[in-house]
């Protein structure tokens, strides 16, 4: 099998050659506090990159599978100790209940742990709608892993939940984005500059894009998109 098509085995993840991450910006006095919803491969990837490349801090995780939740927490949040209040939740609904109570306690003058400013939503595709709509009233910045949803009706429902003031308000008060990460990969940024700005090969008249998808990714996508097609 071609080298690019082989998935790293356990223990080899740190040996994979990657382009260097962009330099991490200087930390501000109040860096964004981030929660990961879904501690699978994407949740771990965003937690890692938040620590390596962003002016932010991962402070909480919501994940129903205890092993995955604690593994991400130990690696990126609480280390070898135990989680503190507000650092781990079994799912987004448990977090929502906690955060609603935390804000009520704070409003009553009680000293409470800091909340989160933003969430990465990394659950199954068909769960995106319920998480986004459920957390929308909290007014958090959100980044949802692609695809946004599996049907148009859910897209419209999400749009309306993030803009409750429609039609008078058409600009959200918080950042909402979808994880089309290749738009921001170093490879694609350099390629775009070479082709469009530097005109390295002259005028581009047509493009044929072929992505070499590894067998493990194709198998996962097959299951994923059969669910979407149905």
Account of the protein in words:
- This protein is α/β, with parallel strands linked by helices and 230 residues long.
- The protein has one domain (27-229): Rossmann fold (3-Layer(aba) Sandwich), CATH 3.40.50.720.
- It contains seven helices and six strands.
- A six-stranded parallel β-sheet has the order 3-2-1-4-5-6, sandwiched between helices.
- It is globular.
Descriptive terms for the model:
230 residues; globular; alpha/beta; Rossmann fold; six-stranded parallel beta sheet; disordered C terminus
Order of the strands making up the biggest sheet? 3-2-1-4-5-6
| Sheet/helix structural class | alpha/beta
Total helical elements: 7
As a percent range, the share of strand residues is: 5-15%
User: Mean of residue pLDDT?
Assistant: 86
Instruction: Return residue spans where pLDDT drops below 50 for at least 5 consecutive residues.
Output: 1-7, 226-230
By DSSP, the count of extended strands is: 6
CATH architectural type: 3-Layer(aba) Sandwich
- Taking Cα atoms only, what radius of gyration do you get, to the nearest Å? 20 Å
Order of helices and strands: EHEHEHEHEHEHH
CATH superfamily: NAD(P)-binding Rossmann-like Domain
Q: How helix-rich are the residues, as a percent range?
A: 25-40%
Q: At the first level of CATH, what is the class?
A: Alpha Beta
Instruction: Please report the distance between the alpha carbons of the first and last residues.
Output: 32 Å
Number of self-contained structural domains: 1
- Here the CATH topology equals Rossmann fold
Q: Describe the main β-sheet briefly.
A: 6 strands, parallel
Tell me, what's the shape? globular
């Amino acid at each position: 099998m071609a080298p690019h098509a082989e998935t790293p085995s356990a223990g080899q993840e740190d040996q994979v050659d990657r382009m260097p991450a962009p330099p991490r910006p200087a930390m501000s006095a109040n860096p964004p506090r981030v929660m990961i919803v879904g501690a699978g491969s994407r949740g771990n990837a965003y937690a890692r990159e938040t620590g390596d490349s962003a002016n932010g801090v991962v402070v909480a995780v919501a994940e129903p599978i205890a092993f995955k939740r604690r593994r991400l927490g130990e690696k990126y949040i609480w280390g070898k100790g135990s989680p503190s209040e507000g650092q781990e939740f079994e799912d987004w609904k448990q977090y929502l209940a906690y955060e609603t109570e935390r804000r009520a306690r704070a409003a009553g003058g009680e000293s409470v742990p800091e909340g989160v400013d933003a969430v990465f939503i990394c659950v199954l595709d068909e769960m995106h709608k319920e998480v986004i709509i459920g957390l929308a009233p909290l007014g958090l910045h959100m980044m949802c892993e692609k695809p946004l949803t599996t049907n148009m009706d859910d897209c419209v429902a999400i749009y309306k939940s993030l803009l409750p003031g429609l039609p008078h308000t058409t600009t959200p008060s918080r950042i909402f984005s979808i994880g089309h990460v290749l738009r921001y990969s170093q490879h694609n940024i350099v390629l775009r500059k070479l082709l469009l700005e530097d005109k390295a090969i002259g005028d581009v008249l047509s493009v044929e894009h072929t992505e070499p998808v590894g067998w493990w990714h194709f198998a996962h996508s097959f299951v994923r998109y059969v669910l979407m097609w149905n």
